[in-house]
C-alpha cells in the first residue's frame, strides 16, 4: 500500500480511525492461533456506508482487506496473510440496535460481543443460545463468519440456526440485505445461508438479525463417571436418542480429568476413564425431573459407576468446573497444543476415540480429548514440546491421521473453528476437486478480484 | 431438441425411461399453478450417475432441463417454460435409503413423498416436523428446492432447519456432496444452504440427509373465537412471545369461516371475526396443561370470546377441520383464486390484515385469508371470476398492492411457495438491483450456460 492509499482511506473514516503506525499494526496482527501476520493499515469504520466506500476503494486498487472482530479465532481467519487493510469492526460497529420482544428478534452490529447480547436479552426474559467458549470476548460478526457453536448446541443448534437476516457489503461496495425479520422467507437465493461460515471471504457483514427464544425457567446439571471412554461414548449417543434432548452433553477423558485435578485439586475421579457433564432445561420442574431421570437411566445402562446431580447453583458450578478448565489445564502435557475440533456422527464417537488412542500410541504423543460430544464434536489436543522440531512433526502427522479417520467415519474437519489457514492443507482430504472448483466459482462470483480475506480456506 | 438428442438420452436411461410422445409431454406439462408448459422430452433417471450423464449431455448441447418431483408447486417451479427436458425424479429415485436411529438422521432420495418419510420415522418413534399442506403428494426434493413450510413451522421451523447434507449434480455433470451427518460442519462454503430454496436453478438434488427429532408423546389442540381479526392477530403474537411455543397457531378470517360452514355445515361461528386453532406438544401431561393454560390466558387477555379445548383425537380433528378445508371451500367466492403466501414479522399481522381489508374495498374484490400466523405467514386469496378479463386485472392489481404493503411491513413475497414464474414480476419490489445482480452472479457460477430451470426467479 502507498502513502496515498492511507491518505485516501483517512479521507473516508477520518484521521483518528485509520492507522499504519507500528503499534496499531502489531495490535492487529494476531489471533488465537498465535501466528503473526502484519497488515499494512488498520481501519475502523463507523457505519455500513464507510464499509462500502472502503471496500469499493480496495477493490478498485486491488488491496487485500480482512474483516476482523475480536481476533479470537482458532484458524487464522482474521490474519492478513497478504498484508493490506485490516477492517476492525469492534471499535465503532458494536451496538445492539434493537431487541424486538414482540417478534423475539435482535438486530446487532457485527462488533457486539456474544455475551453482551446474551446478557441484554436475558434481562428481558429472552435467550440467545449459541455460547462458544469465547463468549466473553468473541464478536457476533465473527460468530456468524465462522458459524460458532458452543456447549448448548446439542439442544439448541449453532449460530446458523439463529441467523434470520444479514446486511452485508460486497467487495465491489454494493450493500445487500439478505433475509427478513420473519421465520420464513423463500424469495430469492439464500444469501445469508452462504455468508454464514464463509470466514469473511465473500462479504463484510454489517448487521445481523438473530432469532431469540424464551429463557427456560429451570435447569439442572449432572455428572456421570465412567470406567472407560468407550462406555461414556456409548452413553452419549444412546442418551441423545432416548427421546430427550439435554442442553449439553460434554466429556473429559482421563488425561483431561488428571490435568484439571493436578492443577486445581478439586477431588475429581482421576481413575475414571471419562466423565460426562450434562445439563437439562425446561419451563416446569416436572420436565427437569423427567429428563434427569432419563439421563441417569441411560448413563447407568451404559456402564456409569456414579451419577451426581447438582442440587443448587454452586453444585452445578462445581460439576462444570472441570469442563470449563480443561483447555488451560492440559498444557501440563506439552508447551504446544495442536488443537482441532473434529466432529463425527454421534454413534461414531466410540470408534473415533478408540482410534485416536491408537494414533497416540503410534506416534508417541499425548492426546487429551474433551468437548461437545452431545453433537459429536471432540476437541482433540495433540500436545508436544513446541521447541523440538521432531516433536512438532510427529504432532502434525498425528493430526493428519486423525483428520483421515474423522473423514472415514463420516465426520468433518471442523465443527466450530473453520478452516482459515490452519486447516487449509487438509481441505483436499475432505473435498473433491469438483467441490473445490465449486467453492472457487462461488468465491469468484462474490469477489472477482480476490481482495476479501485472500488465501483462506484453500481457495 | 432433435431426434438424435432423444436417442442419446435413451442411450443413458434406456428406452423405457425416455419419452417424447404426446401423452408423456402432457403428463409432465403442469403444476399446481394450472399453467401448461410442454417439455420436448421426459426422462426418468434411475440414479445419480444417470443424472450426471444427462446434465452433462444437456450442458454440452445447451438443452434446458427442469428437475421435477410431484409437480405440486404453486409458482411454476417445475414448468419447462423454455421446453427441453423434464427430469422426473419421482419414478425411480424415490427410496428412503436409511433411517439412522442412533444419530436420528434419515437419508432419502429426492422423489420420496413427504408423508412417506413422516410415517416411516414415526413408526420407530422419531419425528420429521415439516408438514406442508401438500404432504401427501409433494416430494422431499421439491420441499428442499422450495424450502417448504407447514403448520408445525411455528415451533419446529421449516425444511431448511432439517437439512443436514445434500448430494447434488451440477449442470456440468459434477457430483458434489454438501454437508455431513453431523450437527455441526463448518468446513467449506455452506453449499447446502444455498441449494435450499434455489428452486432447481443451481443443481439437481440426488440425496437428502435430514435431521429427525424424537416424537413428542402428548399433544393437545384448542380453538379460540375472536370478535375481530385484529384481536385475533394481537393474540397470535402475544401468545408466541409469552414464553411458550405452540406447535401451530393457525387462523381463519370471517370469510373463510363462512365458506367452510356453507360447504360443510359443521356449526362454525359464522359471526366471529376470526378463529385461531392451535396445538401444543410435549413429553409430559404437565407440559401440555401448562402450555394450554398459557394460550387460554393470552387468548382471553386479547379479546377471545370463547376457548374450546379438544379432549380427545376426534375433538381435535373437529377443531382442525375448518383449517384443513379452508382452501377448497373459499372457491365459493370466485372461479379463480389468486393465492399468495406473504409473510410478515408476527407483530405486523394486525396491520397487515387491516390493510388487506382496505385493498379488498378499494378494488371491490373478495380476499379471504387464512394461514400460518404463528410464523407470520398469511395465505391471501384474491377471488375473481376467471372468465372476465377486467376482474382478473383488478385481482392482479390488488395482489401487487398487497405485495407492496407486505414489503413495507418488513415482510417477504413468499413464506413457502417460492418465486418461480408466478412471482417473478414482483421480485423488483423486494430486491434491489445490487441484490438481483448478486443472484445472477451466483446462478452463473453454478450454471454458466443457463440450462437448469431457465427463466425462473426473474434471473
TrEMBL record, chains A, B:
Keywords: FAD, Flavoprotein, Oxidoreductase
Gene Ontology CC terms: glycolate oxidase complex
PROSITE patterns, alphabetized: FAD_PCMH
FAD-binding PCMH-type domain segment(s): 35-215
Cofactor: FAD
Molecular functions (GO terms): (S)-2-hydroxy-acid oxidase activity; FAD binding
Cross-referenced InterPro entries: FAD-bd_oxidored_4_C, FAD-bd_PCMH, FAD-bd_PCMH-like_sf, FAD-bd_PCMH_sub2, FAD-linked_Oxase-like_C, FAD-linked_OxidoTrans_Type4, GlcD, Oxid_FAD_bind_N
Keyword check for ATP-binding: no
NCBIfam families listed in its UniProt record: glcD
Protein family (similarity comment): Belongs to the FAD-binding oxidoreductase/transferase type 4 family.
Protein name: Glycolate oxidase subunit glcD
Amino acid at each position: 500500500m502507498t502513502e496515498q492509499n492511507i491518505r485516501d482511506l483517512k479521507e473516508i473514516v477520518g484521521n483518528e480511525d485509520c492507522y499504519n503506525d507500528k503499534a496499531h499494526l502489531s495490535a492487529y496482527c494476531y489471533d488465537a492461533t498465535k501466528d503473526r501476520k502484519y497488515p499494512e493499515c488498520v481501519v475502523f469504520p463507523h457505519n455500513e456506508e464507510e464499509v462500502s466506500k472502503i471496500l469499493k476503494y480496495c477493490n478498485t486498487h486491488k488491496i487485500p482487506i480482512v474483516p476482523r472482530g475480536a481476533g479470537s479465532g482458532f484458524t487464522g481467519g482474521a490474519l492478513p496473510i497478504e498484508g493490506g487493510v485490516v477492517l476492525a469492526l469492534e471499535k465503532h460497529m458494536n451496538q445492539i440496535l434493537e431487541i424486538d420482544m414482540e417478534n423475539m428478534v435482535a438486530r446487532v452490529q457485527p462488533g457486539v460481543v456474544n455475551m453482551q447480547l446474551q446478557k441484554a436479552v436475558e434481562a428481558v426474559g429472552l435467550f440467545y443460545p449459541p455460547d462458544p467458549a469465547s463468549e466473553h470476548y468473541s464478536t457476533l460478526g465473527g460468530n456468524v463468519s465462522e458459524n460458532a457453536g458452543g456447549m448448548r448446541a446439542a439442544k439448541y443448534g449453532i449460530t446458523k440456526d439463529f441467523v434470520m437476516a444479514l446486511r452485508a457489503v460486497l467487495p465491489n461496495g454494493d450493500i445487500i440485505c439478505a433475509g427478513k425479520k420473519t421465520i420464513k422467507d423463500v424469495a430469492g437465493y439464500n444469501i445469508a445461508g452462504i455468508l454464514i461460515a464463509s470466514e469473511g471471504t465473500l462479504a463484510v457483514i454489517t448487521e445481523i438479525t438473530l432469532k431469540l427464544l424464551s429463557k427456560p425457567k429451570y435447569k439442572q446439571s449432572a455428572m456421570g463417571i465412567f470406567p472407560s471412554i468407550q462406555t461414556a461414548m456409548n452413553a452419549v449417543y444412546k442418551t441423545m436418542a432416548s427421546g430427550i434432548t439435554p442442553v449439553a452433553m460434554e466429556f473429559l477423558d482421563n488425561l483431561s480429568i488428571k490435568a484439571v485435578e493436578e492443577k486445581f485439586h478439586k477431588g475429581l475421579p482421576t481413575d475414571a476413564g471419562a466423565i460426562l457433564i450434562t445439563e437439562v432445561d425446561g419451563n416446569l420442574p416436572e420436565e427437569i425431573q423427567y429428563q434427569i431421570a432419563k439421563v441417569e437411566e441411560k448413563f447407568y445402562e451404559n456402564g456409569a459407576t456414579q451419577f451426581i446431580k447438582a442440587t443448587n447453583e454452586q453444585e452445578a458450578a462445581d460439576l462444570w468446573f472441570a469442563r470449563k478448565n480443561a483447555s488451560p489445564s492440559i498444557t501440563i502435557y506439552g508447551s504446544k497444543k495442536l488443537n482441532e475440533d473434529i466432529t463425527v456422527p454421534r454413534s461414531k464417537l466410540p470408534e473415533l476415540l478408540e482410534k485416536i488412542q491408537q494414533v497416540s500410541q503410534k506416534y508417541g504423543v499425548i492426546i487429551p480429548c474433551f468437548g461437545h460430544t452431545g453433537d459429536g464434536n471432540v476437541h482433540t489436543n495433540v500436545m508436544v514440546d513446541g521447541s523440538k522440531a521432531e516433536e512438532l512433526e510427529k504432532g502434525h502427522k498425528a493430526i493428519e491421521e486423525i483428520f483421515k479417520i474423522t473423514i472415514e467415519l463420516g465426520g468433518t474437519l471442523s465443527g466450530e473453528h473453520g478452516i482459515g489457514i490452519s486447516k487449509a492443507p487438509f481441505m483436499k482430504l475432505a473435498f473433491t476437486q469438483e467441490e473445490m472448483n465449486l467453492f472457487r466459482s462461488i468465491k469468484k462470483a462474490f469477489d472477482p478480484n480476490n481482495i476479501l480475506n485472500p488465501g483462506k480456506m484453500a481457495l
